[in-house]
Amino acid sequence: MTILVTGAAGFIGMHVADRLMGQGHAVVGIDNLNDYYPVALKRARLDLLRERHGRLFTFHELDFADMGAVQAALTDQVIEAIVHLGAQAGVRYSLLNPHAYVRSNLAGHVNMLELARDRHVRHLVYASSSSVYGGNESLPFRVEDRVDHPVSLYAATKRADELMSETYAHLFRIPMTGLRFFTVYGPWGRPDMAMWIFTSKILAGEPIPVFNHGRMQRDFTYIDDIVEGIIGCLDHPPADDGALKAGGSRAPHRLYNIGNNRPEELMHLIAVLEEAIGRKAQLDFQPMQPGDVHATYADISAIARDIGFSASTAIEIGVPRFVQWYRRYNDLD
Predict the structure, then answer these.
(1) Distance CA 115, CA 5 (A)
(2) N or C: which end of the chain has fewer CB atoms below 10 A?
(3) Over the range 81-92, which residues count as b (16 or more CB within 10 Å of their CB) and which as e?
(4) Active site residue 154
(5) Is the pLDDT of residue 197 over 80?
(6) Residue 135 contacts residue 149 (beta carbons within 8 Å)
(7) 2-182+223-260+299-312: CATH homologous superfamily?
(8) H or E element that contains 81
């Protein structure tokens, strides 16, 4: 099968493409290689995919918000399924550059819906986010919860993606699965995420910013578990049978939380990082940041029931793996 992976140079996209090609599928990757974080890291991910998989991997550097560019690149390309992971990420950055989120997460998502419609794909799996839960104080977060009050523009665009996908699934019967990711980390991760920032600063002997004075919880989810869930969903498209799906749709569209199902105190994460690095952190306690939430906690009962998903990697296992990779990537060994 030939599968389109958007955001193929991104953290999750690279790992998903790697796993798919390891299974023998051909992957067509697209990514605009923007400079939200260092492009060198994105190019290194692509180099790894090319080195491992050769002709199974085709890459197009383009902006999927530009439908003309998408159509031109894919004119003669068979596309049987889509894993749409490309997006403008980051809660805090959405306060500074909102138009980037409108272009990528709204216009770009519609373009992928149109492509799925035109190519009659067997399944479109797309990235949503746990951020859609906003200030929800009911824990754990369930896909049945109302998500009408996002606290960042990033979250609002991800919820809009879910609603637009529901419309396309209803009108055109396109099988779709939206995945609400919970704080993904691991090798080849993003430099704007806490795991990378903390590791970098601890190794450099610099203070790490600890927001809300450390009173935060996150459902940290290791990348290998996330990839297992994505591939499991991709292999099992929702049926167009009128039955009620996870998330409340009767169209062939479902929504899943995909997380570790085990929220960790931020201070415990820091302790695990200190152990893995072999150095104590200097803590710079700061107030809560605009757009952030106090806690995330995934109820994964729906994806566990339907796909058999379970996250098996505790942070005591995953964090040392990340630190080991970080040292190697940055020539610190």
Answers:
(1) 13
(2) C
(3) bbbbbbbbbbbe
(4) yes
(5) yes
(6) yes
(7) NAD(P)-binding Rossmann-like Domain (3.40.50.720)
(8) strand 81-84
Structure-block tokens of residue 279? 């150095």
DSSP annotation of 35 reads S
Token pair recorded at residue 4: 């389109």
Asked whether 211 and 292 are in contact (CB, 8 A), the reply is yes
Alpha helices by DSSP H, listed for 83-183, are 98-101, 108-119, 153-172
Q: Which candidate in 101, 154, 168, 326 is catalytic?
A: 154
Structural contact between residues 16 and 231, judged by C-beta atoms closer than 8 angstroms:
yes
Between CA 68 and CA 242 the distance in angstroms is 35
What DSSP assignment string belongs to 291-331? T--SB--B--HHHHHHH-------HHHHHHHHHHHHHHHTT
Check whether 291 has a pLDDT greater than 70: no
If residue 16 lies in a helix (H) or strand (E), which one and from where to where?
helix 11-22
pLDDT at 7: 98
Domain ranges of the chain: 2-182+223-260+299-312
Angle between helices 108-119 and 67-74 (to 10 degrees): 40
pLDDT digits (tens, 9 = 90+) for 294-324: 678 889 999 999 999 999 999 999 999 999 9
Q: What is the pLDDT of residue 292?
A: 65
CA of residue 160 relative to chain centroid, distance: 16
> Apex CA 121: angle with CA 120 and CA 125, to 5°?
140
pLDDT at 297: 80
Question: How far is Cα 311 from Cα 192, in angstroms, rounded to an integer?
Answer: 23
